[in-house]
Amino acid sequence: MNPLLSVKGLTKRYGAFVGCADISFDLYPGEVMGIVGESGSGKSTLLNCMAGHLTPDEGQVVFDTRADGPRDTITMSEPERRMLGRTDWAYVHQHARDGLRMGVSAGGNVGERLMAVGARHYGQIREKTTDWLGRVEIDASRVDDRPTTFSGGMQQRLQIARNLVTGPRLVFMDEPTGGLDVSVQARLLDLLRGLVRDMGLSAVIVTHDLAVVRLLADRLMVMKDGRVAEAGLTDQVLDDPQHPYSQLLVSSVLQV
Amino acid sequence: MIELKNVSKTFILHNQGSAVIEVISNVSFSVAAGECVALTGVSGAGKSTLMRMIYGNYLTQSGEIHIGDIDLVRAEPREVIKLRRDVLGYVSQFLRVVPRVPTLDVVAEPLRSLGASEGDAKASAAALLHELNIPQRLWPLSPTTFSGGEQQRVNIARGFAYNYPAMLLDEPTASLDAANREVVLSLIERAKARGSALIGIFHDEAARDRVCDREIDMSRFTPGVAA
Fold this sequence. Notes:
heterodimer; A: alpha/beta; six-stranded mixed sheet; 25% strand; B: alpha/beta; four-stranded antiparallel sheet; 8 helices; 9 strands
């Protein structure tokens, strides 16, 4: 089995400052990997380099495309990379506002993605959109309302529907539950877990919340100063951390 | 089915003066299909630690742990995940679930991840919950608000939902009343009869004598205790 995503020696510098350095890993179909670390550890830089939002200085991001097999997405042409971003990849932003079109209705936000990949039949677009709003527990009566009238949790769920409606194979998530209150967070986690299992998605989730990665991620990477401090099975890294920094991180969690 | 060769474990606590704690040294034993082996020894002898090493959530520094045809010590994360889904079950002492997920779904989840349809998985889950005397009115509720004994039984139902070829049981009869203890012991006996290899920790001696074929005294492998 080919890895779906294979990152090799990825490095990004901001002048003399190291964003992330020499990151390598393979992600297989259906796997969910968490990336944790304190702010400034390079986890968002890494995610943005993988998703094509930033250009890394060195390294490869090889994705197993449907048509041509494994391709390095960094040396790929811009239109090809954009096409990938609309079809096989999805990116869930921490702030739903960054991932939604706030001036367009909820239904429009979801339907637009379908049209971007060639759907033209209004009835079918409408039907699929309503189906997805239902899956993320947004009431059908709100389909014509703008996201500006939604709560934070609803906006986040709408962003997830907008991203998953085209049936991507790989989802990048940047703090998907950040800034939401705990009861909304729990519902979103349950939703994401079900979607990952039922659609066989692979995902890379950046977060600083260890409880979130324990529930969502199979594998975990701990970053410190732009480098990988430790990587392994999620429960192994959390229950028996080996690196001094991961031990500090795990022992610093407050018990409820 | 399960085979351990010269397995050792040391904890290094980097943030507490780099204290080095040797917990287990040179454990070797094997468990055949249809056999149940008890780990015994005083508290702190390393019973739970060894159990977690066999499940893979504690890292093993040296030695080999073979389960089926996989050496857990050298396996890639995705191989361990597959092993846990298809081969190795674990009934821990604590239930860890996503908040707000109904009990029935919690128990059905291992079957769902193996590709069972929602209906089949829920039917099996319902049968187990019924056998373990969890009232049906509790099934649509999240187990996070249940009593200790109820949570323990939900955990057991989840662990036994699928017929794993290898199972680890950490105090499966703790905090259960006599009737439910009997149900759990019969689940264990049925698993043995089906040919599962089991390793358990039982403080309940009568239960241990009834279901276990052999005992392994962990104190023999604990450097601190033996010295």
